[in-house]
Amino acid sequence: MADENEPVGDGITALDTLTREQLEQAAAKYNEDKQRFDVAPTAKQLLGPFTVFCLVLNRTIGSGIFTVPPKVLSGTGSVGAALIIWSFSGIIVMCGLLCWLELGLSIPFHLISEDGTMRKVSTPRSGGEKNFLEYIFKKPPFFITSVYGIMFIILGNISGNAVAFGIYVLIAAGCDPISDPLQRGPVIGLAIGALTVCASLHIFSRRGGILVNNMFAVVKVAMLLVIAILGFVHAGRTHLQSSGINESLDSTLNITNQNITSAMINTAMRHNFDLDMSFSHPRHDVGSYVDSFLVVIYSYTGFEQPFYVLSEVARPRRVFPMYTLLGMTTAVLLYVLVNVSYLCVVPKEAYTTIPMNTIDMAGAFFHDIFDSTNGDHMARRVMSGLIAVSIFGNILVLTFTAARVKQEIAKEGILPFSLFFATGHTTPWAWLQSRWRRESNMPTALKPGDIDIDDHLEQSPMAALTLHWFTSVLLIAVTSMLRPTTAYSFLISLYSYVNVSVIGFLVAGGLLYLKLDSYLRGCMGRNWVNKVSFKPWLDPLHAVVYFFAMGFFLFAAFAKPTKGSPYVKDIVGYWWFLVPAIGLSSLLWGMVWWLGLKGIEWNRRRRLDVRRTPYIEKDGDGNYVQKVELVEHEWLAVVDSELHEMT
C-alpha cells in the first residue's frame, strides 16, 4: 500500500479526512443547502469479483464484434491485415488497462493520522479517468474538471448503440431500416425506448440492474463461443455445409458485382487463409487503416467501466488486477476466435469487392450456413435479434457506470444545481421491500444528513441517471435527420475518437509525465514512483505504447480515405474529417465552460469553494477504502486582491 509522505506543496498540508467523531459532528450540523453525504454501499451491497468481470465483458461485447469485422476487412483489403489489426488492437487496449490499473488503484491520496503518525494513504474512488486527470493536472482550479466533465456529460454515452439496437430489432422483425426511409422513425423510437428502459431499471433497483448486467455478460460470452464453434465445425467440411446460396452483391459505386455461391462458402476457409491469398490486394491508404484501427479499438473498449464504480467494489486492490485483466483477456481471445470463425464461412470477396456491403458479418455468417437464397432468411433475422440483445446489454452497463461518473462530476460543483445531481436516493424497489417486510432488523432508508454506514437500503444516483438519459436522447435527436446507419456510424466513431483516443492520450501522457517527473526530480517532485500501489511488468512500456498509439490515431484520423474505402463519404454519409474535428473541438467546450465559471465568480465577487472530505476505513485486506464522503459547495466572498488573482 502507498503510504509514503508527499513533499510539501503537493496540494495537501493538513488532514483531509474525517474521523468517526468528526463525521458524526458534521451529520449533526448538516446543512442541506450546501452539503451532501455520499454513503458507500454496505458490505452486502458491494460488487464482487464476478460482477467486475461481467462489467468488462458486457460493455466490451456490444455491437462491435458483429458490425466492425466487415469494415476492417473492406478497409484493409486482406484477411491477414484484418486479423493483425484485431490482434494488435487487443495488445494496445491491454496496455490501456494497465495504465488505468496503475492510476486507479493509487489515486486519490489522503493525509491521515494513524497511531500518532501523519502519513498519506491511497484511497481509490469512483470516477475513473476524471480522478486521474484531476490529480495530474491540478491547476488552475476547475479547469481540467470542466474540460473532461463537459465532454463526458455530452459524449459519455453510447447513443450510437441505441440506434443500432433499433436497426437490428427491425431487421429481426423482417423490416428494412437500412434502405427504407420510412423506418427512420421506428429506429429512433426503439433507440429512445432502450435508453429509457435501461435508465429506469437502474433507478428502480440497483441490485436488479447488476443482476441483469451479469446475466447479459454470460449470454454474450455464450453467443460468441457458439459462433466460434459453428465456424470451426463448418471448416471441417463435413457438417453445416452451405447449400442453395447464389447471390449477387449490389453496389452503388459502379464496381463490378460479385456473386457469392455455396461453393465459395464451403471453400472459404481454404481460400481466405491461403498463405498466397491472405495478404493479397491490400489497400494502401493510411486513412482506411487508421479508421479500421479506431473502430476495432472501439470494439474493445470496456476495461474502464469498473473504474467508474470503484468505490462500490469490495476489496478493489485484490479484485481489480485479476478480474479486469481476466475480462479483457477473455474478450480479446473471443474476438480473435470469432473473426477467424467468420472467415471460415464468409468469402472475403463479399466485403473486399463491395465496400457498401458492411452492415454486419454475423448475419452473413448465419445466413451462409443456414439459409438459402430463395428462403425466408430466418437465420439472418435470428442473428439480428441476438445482436440486438447484445447491444441492449451494452447500453445497460454503460448507463450504470457512466451515471456514476456524472455524479462525481456534479460533486465538483461545476454544473448548475450540482448538489442535486450529486445526490443518491434510496431505490423504489428497496423502499418497497422495506415496507413489505417490516422486520425489526431491516435496513433503513437514508435521509439527507444520515450516515448509517453499515446498515442502509441501496441507493441510486437518480438525478445523474436522468442526466445521462437526457444527453443520450439529445445526441439521437441531433442525428435524427441522418439515415440510421449513418447516425450509428457517426456516433460510435465520435465516441471512439473522444472517449478512447483523446482521453487515452491525455491519461497515458499524464502518467508518463508523472513517471518522468519522478525520475528527474525524485522526492522533490510528484514522487509517483514511491506512491503508486500497482506497478505493471515492463513498466513503463504500457504507458509508452498507449500514449503513442492514441497520439497517432488522434492526428492520423485526418488522413483522407481513398475511393473504394468503406470510410468514404459516399458510404458512411459524412466527410472523413468531421469526427476528428468535432472530437478535438470537444476539448474547447469545457474550456469555454470554465471561462464562463470564472466570469460568474468575477460578476458575483465570490469564489466557488468545493470541499470533498471522506471518512475512510480499512477493508479486509488492510487497505483503505472510502465509506462516506462529505461534499460541500459554497460561494465565498472575496476581496479585490483575490479578484485579480482569479483573472
Estimated share of beta-strand residues: 5-15%
User: Any idea what the shape is?
Assistant: globular
Per DSSP, the total helix count is: 25
Task: Report the count of strand segments.
Answer: 9
In terms of structural class, how would the helical and strand content be classed? mainly alpha
Distance between the termini: 40 Å
The strands making up the biggest β-sheet line up spatially as: 1-9-8
Calculate Rg over CA atoms. Answer: 26 Å
Q: Mean pLDDT score, rounded?
A: 88
Please summarize the sheet with the most strands. Answer: 3 strands, antiparallel
Low-confidence blocks of residues:
1-13, 251-256
The share of residues in helices is 55-70%
Subcellular location: Membrane
Protein name: Amino acid transporter
Main location: membrane
InterPro entries: AA/rel_permease1, AminoAcid_Transporter
Task: Give a brief outline of the structure.
The chain is mostly helical and 647 residues long.
Protein architecture, described:
There is one protein chain. The protein is mainly alpha-helical and 647 residues long. 58% of the residues lie in helices and 8% in strands. It has 25 helices and nine strands. The strands form four sheets. A three-stranded antiparallel β-sheet has the order 1-9-8, with helices on both faces. Strands 2-3 form a two-stranded antiparallel sheet. A two-stranded antiparallel ribbon has the order 4-5. The longest helix has 38 residues, at 484-521.
